[in-house]
Each structure stands twice: as C-alpha cells, then as structure tokens.
Amino acid sequence: MQMPFYLTAMLVSVSAIAGAAHAQMSAPPIPSALPNVHAMTPANSAGVLEYCSKRHLVSTVSAGAVLGSLTKKGSVKKSVEYTAGQSGQILTGHGKPFVVGKAPSYLQSRVCDMVLNHAKQF
C-alpha cells in the first residue's frame, strides 16, 4: 500500500527538522566556547588585535586606534605575550591558550570584538 504524497512529504519534513535540531544541539553554547578576555594583558591584547586586523576580523579603524595606544610602550612589542597574540593566541592564564584561528569562523570575529572592547580599558 502506497502512502499519499502529502503524508510522505510531511514525514520527510519532520525528519529534516529533527536532524537540524539535533545538529544545533550538538554545538557547545557560545559563552562556554569563548575565552575569558578579562585576564588578558595589554601586550597580549595588542598582539591579538594586530592578528585580528590583518585578517579583517575586526574594524581596522577601531583596532588601529587602540593598538596605537597599547604599543606606545616599547616593552609591549618586545613581550612574549605580544608575540603569542600576533599568532592569534589569547593567553588567559587558565591552561591552554585560546587560538582564534582554530575557532569556528562564526566565533572568530566575536572573539576579536571582545578583545577590542577589553583593550579599550587599558
């Protein structure tokens, strides 16, 4: 016995929705996937802002102004934390660094914006 077309279409729709819902639930919630940028030093923040600016993950105008004020101190650019930041590593002091480039693309610009906002406080 063959099902009417509308029942078949409805079953296909329901299974597609269930599959999409499962895929959405499998990703970690955004706040748990983001690093604690409040523990970043000025040197690390400057390096990460440079990384983000070069990759167009943050406004270069906004980042440039903050970056300029952070790097006025000669010791910042000589810091190991600055060098780590230039490679996209956010050092939070809590174990492994958060690497911006290894984060899902939808989180990369979000993290860069967080670093920019934090760096404005220095």
In short:
With 122 residues, this protein is mainly alpha-helical. The chain is built from 7 helices and 2 strands; from the N terminus they run ααααααββα. The protein has a two-stranded antiparallel sheet with strand order 1-2.
Structure, explained:
The protein has 122 residues and is mainly alpha-helical. It has a domain at 35-119. It has seven helices and two strands. The protein has a two-stranded antiparallel ribbon. Helix 3 packs antiparallel against helix 4 (60-70). The longest helix has 22 residues, at 5-26. The protein is globular, with a radius of gyration of 21 Å. The termini are far apart.
**Strand elements, count:** 2
Number of helical elements = 7
Query: What is the CA-CA span between the terminal residues?
Result: 73 Å
* Percentage of residues assigned to helices: 55-70%
- Estimated radius of gyration: 21 Å
3D shape: globular
How much of the residues is beta strand, in percent?
under 5%
* Helical/strand content category: mainly alpha
On the 0-100 scale, what is the average pLDDT? 83
Largest sheet: 2 strands, antiparallel
